[in-house]
Design a protein that fits this description.
Family (chains A, B): Belongs to the 4-hydroxy-2-oxovalerate aldolase family.
CATH superfamily of the largest domain in chain A: Aldolase class I
Mean pLDDT of chain A: 94
Number of strands of chain A: 8
Largest interface: A-B, 41 and 41 residues
CATH topology of the largest domain in chain A: TIM Barrel
Oligomer: homodimer
Number of helices of chain A: 13
GO molecular function (chains A, B): 4-hydroxy-2-oxovalerate aldolase activity
Strand content of chain A: 5-15%
InterPro entries (chains A, B): 2-IPM_HCS-like, 4OH_2_O-val_aldolase, Aldolase_TIM, DmpG_comm, DRE_TIM_HOA, PYR_CT
Helix content of chain A: 40-55%
Number of domains of chain A: 2
CATH architecture of the largest domain in chain A: Alpha-Beta Barrel
Protein name (chains A, B): 4-hydroxy-2-oxovalerate aldolase
EC number (chains A, B): 4.1.3.39
Strand order of the largest sheet of chain A: 1-2-3-4-5-6-7-8
Low-confidence stretches of chain A: none
Radius of gyration of chain A: 19 Å
Structural class of chain A: alpha/beta
């Protein structure tokens, strides 16, 4: 069996949980302890990735360059990774600077049916002799066959691994098994899985992915991440070790890392009603807060708004549809 | 497919989370809302079951009779259930009184290799024309074959269902699948599963149980329960509905119930380092607090004590072995 690569986006997806206000001290401590625990990969940056700090998405306390420099200084064996959504991150402003700062792995992401958008960024990274992964976000919205053809495109651009993201936490273990098995059967490169916990299945789905052939798994300390959070890293690693899989991680050092992260992040993510409904509806957790606000304004049930958004298959960036959905529901009432 | 029976022990296993101090108001509100949501079964009492309120295990704020009477008054379609460990609950003092108060289902529990101990209690309940289940606790400690022969004994005594408890949260989904399938293949009565979340797998394991043939699943609001907690009821029901299974529960009413429970219980269970290590070691979560206290006293790592207790295969009631394990480790250091 191939060794599993655990990729830790606590300092990227986790930063959603603190509105991107991670401090210099948080990054210093976390990156030092991650290196010590033998983490394979540490992903760092704004919650929405490189170049995404903005008035609309929330401004990071520290710049991309500051965050990457701090972590770069503390990492030796652990590889430094970034999440890159073309559109937020430009090649010649953001990506070039990040590579100059010593980023090892660039994960270039698009909505699961829009792999074309990742071509230039993946090719640029490969041209600079760095590692590039392709990331398919909101992957529950496409069939195994569609995901397969999008992943093949990314492989064609030079991607060295494909990561399926369950951005809305909408998968059941059987879905994960089927899609990961299919991707592994048609690709020549490793496949990974990034879980969210909206239905309480982040760890269960990650184990299903590993059994189906995924060799890269994402998890964050205490599950810190957008909405209901990610797969809780230390529980994931414990469960993998318990099942006889190796991760190269020293578990007790990882447990300490998670305890420190809990102090830094102040409170753990919560699996509440709106997270659960967003998981069932297949809507990204980032919609929860604006949905709650707008539903209150229009005196409609925020859960009904979420279900309506699910029916309309919304993706991040379409937050204006919340208003439309709330208005429709308020007129029906 | 058989309909799934969801059994909710929030007012029993959940009471561990508040040291058995559930108030009259908590019970009134929860039982009324559970009935409204269409819960099939509500399990009520001290965390360790009927007759277990004591100086050693913690005293309940309310007596068994008070708790059962309050809930009985509010339940119509929802059946009232109790957890009974022979030794804590006597037949002629505790069990007779509970049946007189109108309990519908009595779940008679023993360590997974000691089904013999449940014979008299199960036979008594059946003689009184009430429903009796057999419960095998700490079931990760026995093979499928051993669990099978113990379950057959319980079936022979008259048990009308067998519940496998993952008391230490030590199972992986594959273990659950294998054991539930085996039990379903040899028993004539329904099989159920009661999860704990020490490895973050409570929901994943519960879904695996349902797929393997289990038709009774336990879950508690927000996961309230001993240690790392149980399967989070509302996420479990959402995931089951998402997978096309029916539970008879009105999900939105259940989400409201869980929100109210969160207010009553004040804080959600946490999946911290010691919970994770206890899950890997296969030690019941109730050991966590005394282990932390004694390890500190002897200046040894509480995680090492937990692993040592797992090696010695301790079960509840053997807390005196903590001291012995800590002493041994401190002498090795």
């Amino acid at each position: 069996m191939h060794p599993l690569i655990i990729s830790d986006p606590t300092l990227r997806d986790g930063s959603h949980a603190v509105k991107h206000q991670l401090t210099r001290e948080n990054l210093e401590l976390y990156s030092r302890m991650a290196e010590k625990a033998g983490m394979a990969v540490l992903e760092v940056g704004h919650g929405n990735g490189l170049g995404a700090s903005s008035l609309q998405l929330g401004e990071s306390l520290l710049s991309d360059a500051e965050m990457l420099s701090i972590c770069r200084n503390n990492l030796r064996r652990t590889r430094l990774s970034i999440h890159v959504i073309p559109g937020f991150a430009t090649i010649h402003r953001d990506l070039q600077a990040a590579l100059e700062l010593g980023v090892d792995i660039v994960r270039v992401a698009s909505h699961c049916t829009e792999a074309d958008l990742t071509k230039r960024h993946i090719e640029y990274v490969r041209g600079q002799n760095r590692t590039a992964y392709g990331v398919l976000m909101m992957s529950h919205m496409a069939s195994a066959e569609v995901l397969g053809s999008e992943a093949l495109k990314m492989q064609g651009y030079g991607a060295q691994a494909i990561i399926l993201m369950d951005s809305a936490g909408a998968y059941l273990p059987g879905d994960v098994t089927a899609k990961i098995q299919y991707l592994c059967s048609i690709l020549d490169i490793p496949v990974g899985f990034h879980a969210h916990n909206n239905l309480g299945l982040a760890i269960g789905n990650s184990l299903a992915a590993a059994e189906a052939g995924a060799t890269i798994l994402d998890g964050t300390a205490r599950g810190f991440g957008a909405g209901a959070g990610n797969a809780q890293l230390e529980a994931l690693v414990a469960a993998l070790h318990h099942s006889g899989r190796d991760t190269g991680i020293e578990l007790y050092a990882l447990l300490e890392l998670a305890e420190q992260a809990e102090i830094a992040f102040a409170k753990a993510p919560k699996l509440g009603s709106m997270s659960i409904v967003s998981g069932m509806a297949g809507v990204f957790s980032g919609f929860v807060k604006p949905v709650e606000r707008i539903a209150k304004e229009y005196c409609v049930d925020p859960k009904a708004v979420m279900v309506e958004l699910g029916r309309r298959k919304v993706v991040a960036g379409q937050e204006d549809l919340i208003l439309e959905a709330a208005l429709t529901l308020s007129q029906q009432a």
